[in-house]
Amino acid sequence: MISNLAKPRGSQFYCEDSIVLTKNLIGLTNESVWKALERKGLARSFFPLGITLTTNGMNYDTGLSKLILIKPPKKS
Fold first, then answer.
1. What is the domain range of residue 58?
2. What is the pLDDT of residue 33?
3. What is the per-residue pLDDT across 36-75, written as a single tens digit (0 to 9) for each?
4. pLDDT confidence of 24, banded at 50, 70, 90?
């Protein structure tokens, strides 16, 4: 289960080795979005405590990852 979603401060935050802009987080804490994911069989909502992605949810490719997850340049 994904829980304890931090409230990002500022314009960006790090997600593993990527940068995510906070403007792309609309829906992260929106119950209606969680319910829509559940209706589509992509997740199981335990709003507001957390959300569990189904196998279909883990494998679902929105095509947006390259737009949302920004890879910073590698330091040499």
1. 7-68
2. 94
3. 999 999 999 999 999 999 999 999 999 988 889 999 888 8
4. confident
Provide the b/e sequence for 21-58 (b: ≥16 CB within 10 Å): eeeeeeebeeeebbeebbeeebbebeeeeebeeeeebe
DSSP the chain: -EE------SSEEEETTEEEEGGGGTTTT-HHHHHHHHHTTSEEEETTTEEEE-HHHHH---S-HHHHSBPPPPP-
Structure tokens, 62 = 């929105």
* Residue 75 belongs to a domain: no
Query: Does residue 2 fall inside a structural domain?
Result: no
Residues listed for the chain: 76
Structural domains of the chain, count = 1
